[in-house]
Amino acid sequence: MKKGLSPFMSLILVVVISVAGMVLVLRMGEPLMNKTEDFSEFSESRDAMNRINSAIKDVSYEGNGSSRKISLNSREGEYRVSASGDSVTYKMESKYELFSTGMSKREGDLYIDFYENNTLKLILNSTNIDITTTERWGTGSYNILIKNEGYSGGKTRISFTLL
Hints:
single chain, alpha+beta, four-stranded mixed beta sheet, 10 strands, 34% helix, 39% strand
């Protein structure tokens, strides 16, 4: 009498163990991949906010009527241009804690705040500009015109137009 498994049963056992191993690795790796995607979106949005800031500075220095068109792609979150707050804000809610809650950081003219419930805000504001329009855009691809509308009350008036 032979002892051990038949070659067919051995093959089935190897396949089952291999499939179970792959499923386990994929399940464990999925949260890490998703967190990486959220961090990538944050990085892209930070770069977009810095491009907006550069465009604002460029048109401010160049004078009345100067404008810049910039293209933005957003997979998550929402951008807001506020005339009442003279600010541009990006807000994103992540499924993961990308940074410690309560973290606040300044990178040049950009403020980065991380709130409860994994909410991240990027804020651009300046005391030297007067934003004259209010805009809002979410996910998708956008072309935005940033224009110098002149000088008034000690501030450069800046408008935003979605094209």
